[in-house]
Write a structure and sequence with these properties.
155 residues; 5 helices; mainly alpha
């Protein structure tokens, strides 16, 4: 029993340490952007970081990765297109409509993700997407605070 707990704790610490390392890499990557760099380039870099984060956290086997990434890329493309179809400030009804469409999209892709990954990794995937977004939000807020502390304009 004690050995099982020790093994579980070691695995947890390894995962936690690698997650922290990856977040530091993400932070360093985002801070390395020249201010003049265009939005598309920043978007591409964030997507690369997302892929690295998900791959590392899900610990995908080569077979899983081969099945998963085409599905995930199609899902992300649809998700981005959906988000772009609601530009600007949204009314309460539009926000609800957008959230429902996002949920419908997740439901559409759930069986495909489950086939590619299995139930356990599917659950992890949805949690990882949320974690990644939260980490990006933290990094952006830190960058804005740094810029304002340095007297540079905040974008």
């Amino acid at each position: 029993m004690y050995k099982l707990k020790l093994k579980t704790m070691k695995k947890f610490l390894i995962i936690l340490r690698s997650g922290v390392l990856l977040m530091l890499l993400i932070l360093a990557g985002l801070q390395a952007y020249p201010q003049q760099q265009n939005r598309q380039s920043a978007h591409d870099q964030i997507e690369s970081l997302r892929i690295a984060f998900i791959s590392q956290q899900l610990n995908l086997s080569p077979e899983e990765a081969q099945r998963f990434w085409p599905i995930y890329n199609a899902y992300r493309n649809e998700s981005e297109a959906l988000q772009k179809s609601y530009p600007g400030q949204l009314t309460a009804d539009q926000q609800l409509e957008l959230e429902q469409k996002k949920l419908d999209l997740k439901r559409k892709y759930k069986p495909q993700f489950e086939t590619a990954l299995g139930k356990e990794k599917l659950n992890q995937l949805y949690n990882l997407e949320h974690k990644f977004q939260e980490k990006l939000k933290e990094i952006r807020e830190q960058r804005m605070q740094q810029r304002s502390a340095q007297g540079r304009p905040v974008r």
